[in-house]
């Protein structure tokens, strides 16, 4: 079964077509309204498991075991589902790769990331700081109500760099390595990390497995993301390497540091979360982030996505 998934992902232009569909359409609002999104199904499974296995009166060990069980359930659902769909698609012969591309398409987020960044840029261009704070608050976890223009731009750039890994490179990597099961296992784990992979209560123990597995699955994609960003503009190599470990995450610092180097700005730094100011280290050297650097970050993102297309297309051609 894994062989079928691998053959469908590598020997045919599955990845390239999936990227093309995502860039052209994103995940259409009408489709979302009618059938939702697969990530929503993962969220429902996580919520059910949390109610069952993350009991506050349980010991930390029991909570951690519940979190492990949750991740295993998600991986089983995504992996078995992806494998069965791959088998079914391969029965359509030469058209099977197109069906697989359609099934992989929702796991990519090129267009979605761009669509979330544009309202921030538009609001800043209109000198609407409240609108910019609201727009950036949709894509970051920090408090945004008191951010100035620099803080808004810095937050948006950081989110774009990190999400390039989570939403584009990591899904593409796992699609090319392990086919449809791989890309959807990755999305299931990433969803779990987003919802429960926190150090604060009540997820400190329950979300441990999701956070650690997400780190593992993003280990290679994060470094590939940094490489692609560095190739998309000058100045990223030295700063990217120097500040790659200046982030609490073992992975997020790589694309963020690379982006800071290409743009010549400082990212990260002190930020408030739930009313508590955290003294996070700075990433990068140079000036403060502004609208111009945010617009440049979007162009770097576009060029980096284009390189993903070249990788996917080149792999299909060589196969």
Structure explained in plain terms:
The chain is mainly α and 319 residues long. Helix content is 71%, strand content 3%. The chain has helices at 2-10, 14-25, 29-35, 38-53, 60-90, 96-104, 110-125, 129-137, 149-196, 208-217, 219-231, 236-242, 253-263, 291-318, and strands spanning 267-268, 271-273, 276-278, 282-283. The strands form 2 sheets. A two-stranded antiparallel sheet has the order 1-4. Strands 2-3 form a two-stranded antiparallel sheet. Helix 9 packs across helix 10 and helix 9 (149-196) packs across helix 14. The longest helix is centred in the middle third of the chain and has 48 residues, at 149-196. It is globular and about 55 Å long. The protein starts with a helix and ends with a helix. Mean pLDDT is 93; it is low at 1-11.
Molecular shape = globular
Q: Give me the Rg, rounded.
A: 20 Å
Mean pLDDT: 93
Q: What is the domain total for the residues? A: 1
- The overall strand count is 4
Termini, distance in Å?
Answer: 20 Å
Number of alpha- plus pi-helical segments: 14
Strand order of the largest sheet: 1-4
Poorly predicted spans: 1-11
Level of helix content?
over 70%
- Topology as a string of helices (H) and strands (E): HHHHHHHHHHHHHEEEEH
- Largest sheet composition: 2 strands, antiparallel
Which structural class is indicated by helix and strand composition?
mainly alpha
Percentage of residues in strands = under 5%
């Amino acid at each position: 079964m894994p062989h079928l998934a691998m053959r469908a992902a590598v020997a045919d232009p599955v990845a390239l077509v999936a990227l093309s569909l995502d860039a052209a359409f994103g995940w259409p609002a009408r489709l979302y309204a009618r059938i939702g999104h697969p990530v929503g199904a993962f969220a429902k499974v996580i919520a059910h498991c949390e109610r069952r296995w993350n009991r506050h009166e349980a010991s930390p060990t029991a909570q951690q075991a519940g979190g492990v069980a949750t991740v295993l359930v998600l991986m089983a659902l995504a992996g078995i589902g992806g494998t069965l769909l791959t088998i079914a698609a391969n029965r359509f012969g030469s058209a099977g790769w197109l069906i697989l591309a359609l099934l992989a398409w929702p796991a990519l987020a090129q267009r979605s990331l761009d669509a979330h960044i544009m309202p921030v840029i538009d609001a800043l261009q209109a000198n609407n700081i409240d609108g910019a704070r609201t727009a950036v608050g949709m894509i970051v976890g920090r408090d945004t109500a008191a951010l100035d223009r620099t803080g808004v731009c810095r937050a948006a750039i950081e989110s774009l760099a990190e999400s390039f890994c989570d939403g584009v490179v990591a899904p593409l990597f796992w699609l090319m390595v392990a086919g449809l099961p791989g890309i959807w296992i990755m999305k299931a784990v990433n969803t779990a990390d987003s919802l429960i992979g926190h150090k604060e209560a009540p997820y400190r123990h329950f979300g441990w497995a999701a956070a650690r597995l997400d780190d593992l699955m993003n280990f290679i994609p994060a470094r590939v993301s940094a490489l692609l960003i560095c190739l998309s503009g000058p100045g990223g190599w030295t700063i990217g390497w120097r500040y790659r470990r200046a982030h609490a995450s073992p992975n997020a610092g790589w694309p963020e540091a690379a982006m800071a180097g290409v743009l010549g700005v400082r990212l990260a730094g002190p930020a408030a979360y739930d009313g508590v100011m955290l003294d996070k280290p700075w990433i990068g050297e140079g000036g403060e982030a502004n609208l111009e650097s945010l617009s440049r970050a979007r162009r770097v993102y576009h060029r980096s996505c284009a390189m993903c297309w070249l990788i996917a297309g080149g792999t299909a051609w060589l196969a």
